[in-house]
Amino acid sequence: MWIFIILDNEYFYHYDGKNGGQAGLLDLLKRALKKTYTKTPDISRNGQAVTITFTDFIVDVVPAFDRKGGGYLIPNSISQSWLSTDPKKHIEIWTAENQAHNGDLVPLIKMMKRWNKMINNYFMSFHLEVMILQTLYQVKITDYASGVRYFFDKARYYGTKQNPDPAGYKGDVGAYLNTQQKIANAVSRIETAYKRALKAEDYAVRYQNENAIDMWRQVFGNYFPSYG
User: Fold this and answer.
1) CA 128, CA 52: separation in Å to the nearest integer?
2) Using one digit for the tens of pLDDT, what is the confidence trace for 12-47?
3) From CA 5, how far away is CA 105, in angstroms rounded?
4) What pTM did the predictor assign?
5) 112 exposed, middle or buried (CB, 10 Å; 0-12, 13-18, 19+)?
6) What distance in Å separates the CA atoms of residue 198 and residue 195, rounded to the nearest whole number?
7) What is the DSSP string of 69-128?
8) Beta carbons of 76 and 22 less than 8 angstroms apart
9) CA dihedral 5, 83, 23, 79 (to 10 degrees)
10) Distant-in-sequence, close-in-space partners of 18: CB < 8 Å, separation ≥ 6
């Protein structure tokens, strides 16, 4: 889950190229959130947001500024630059794609976010959504098992490439994975999930349902119902 906070432009000018830049802006937001959520297990800065880790869910809080010509500017603390984006267009795009997938895309996205939680939220939520959109574009989701396996299969490739904002703005939404080691770690996590999905499907074909469910639970944890 992510939340957009539209800030007054005075903060943009205060942190644009000075006072710690985009990282300084995110640190300011982190301090403000810590004053409000004093008992929250973890509040940390990442590439483009401040992540609040509650006991049962995680929220990425993204500071943003109105952009001339439409959309918004958000900070990229890794490259110390501003990224253009537009959540309203994102909603339109994902709604259209979900309809094209007969309503199966959104549930699959929720499943993949549960997997992401199992790997300690290695991927930023929006980056994961964009990769799902890329991998399943014009692909029919016949069932969730094959849809999940297909995503993991193709994500091994997309996880190594730039993932542009689907609203048409420049910039890589996966830029926070800014070293070869981080990219390799991302692909390794996807590869592990892909192999488990393959095994789960194979068990199901051979009517070994208990083994299939156990394998899916290794991917999704307790989110996936236990056998029996």
Assistant:
1) 18
2) 999 999 999 999 999 999 999 999 888 887 888 877
3) 26
4) 0.77
5) buried
6) 5
7) TSSEEEEETTTTEEEEE-HHHHHHHHHHHHHHTTT-HHHHHHHHHHHHHHTTS-S-HHHH
8) yes
9) 170
10) none
